[in-house]
Specification:
By secondary structure, the chain is α/β, with parallel strands linked by helices. It is built from 11 helices and 12 strands.
């Protein structure tokens, strides 16, 4: 009788576990992470395991905060957690890829290179005409993200200005990267900054930065300066954490890394040297500025 009862319990447990695992996992997060690797990874993982991952948007903050509150099981973010934010504390950030910020312009724009100093001057309002960059005598329409805590906005402030509270000078403000990218596609005078993984899928030109193109090799080596990690966020307290952990392991697997490469990003494990390289790189640059 005891053996029979134990068998029944095991059967019920397995049936419950199978049904639970079959339930879709909800992902929320930044559009750049979604376009950079999540869509392709989720599709491939579904084919491999039968586990569906439903993708929503919401931005980098929601990719952290909705996971921290256990509203969703998994998220994506292109920025780290903010200090002293209790609503982000419980999220665990797992770096899976390297992306880069890229300066984008309309396909008709003949200006192909920009320096860090010129980019800084544009966002501060000191350079306002394309002729100052070697282009036509036309005003620069600078397109920026709303707020200071988006993945692009915070990374740009960190890497270019070393100031998270930096104010940008522009009348063209967008709530997310998608609408900003679309606006550049249609405005010959526009200049914006976004993630390279999503920019590659738009009809825009990607400018070189200090003479370096934002391609795989330059990002992996650190020659292209504006690189940053992309994260999958998780919460060990969520009931689906084990399922999320399996997906993260898949992202780091050989097949997962190949998917990330094809999508236009650099797998995190391909370029671990960038962690130390970036710290030294920007320390040297700021020391030079202050010296």
């Amino acid at each position: 009788m005891k053996i029979r009862s134990a068998t029944i319990l095991i059967f019920l447990f397995l049936a419950y576990s199978s049904a639970f695992a079959a339930e879709p996992i909800l992902w929320a997060g930044c559009g750049i992470s979604k376009k950079a690797f999540m869509a392709e990874l989720a599709s491939s993982y579904h084919k491999k395991t039968g586990q569906e991952i439903i993708l929503e948007g919401g931005g980098a903050a929601k990719g952290i905060r909705r996971v921290a509150s256990r509203d969703v099981a998994i998220g994506g973010t292109c920025r780290p957690k903010l200090p002293n934010r209790g609503d982000e504390l419980s999220a665990r950030l797992n770096p899976v890829a390297w992306d880069a910020l890229t300066v984008i312009v309309h396909p008709s724009n003949d200006v192909t290179n920009i320096t860090i100093d010129q980019l800084r001057d544009i966002f501060e309002g000191h350079i306002t005409n394309w002729s100052e960059l070697g282009g036509d005598n036309q005003p620069i329409d600078l397109l920026i993200r709303r707020g200071k805590f988006s993945g692009v906005g915070r990374t740009l402030r960190e890497l270019v200005f070393d100031d998270y509270d930096k104010e940008f000078v522009s009348n063209h403000i967008y709530k997310s990267s998608g609408p900003l990218e679309k606006a550049v596609e249609t405005n010959p005078r526009a200049l914006g900054v976004t993630g390279i993984s999503s920019a590659k899928k738009r009809k825009v030109n990607l400018m070189k930065l200090n003479g370096k193109a934002p391609n795989y090799e330059n990002i992996r080596s650190g020659e292209y300066l504006l690189y940053r990690p992309l994260y999958i966020s998780s919460n060990p307290a969520h009931p689906r954490y084990r399922d999320v952990k399996k997906f993260i392991d898949f992202a780091h697997s050989r097949s997962g890394r190949e998917i990330i490469r094809r999508a236009g990003a650099v797998p995190y494990l391909d370029a671990l040297n960038l962690i130390r390289h970036q710290r030294q790189q920007w320390h040297d640059a700021r020391s030079k500025e202050n010296g």
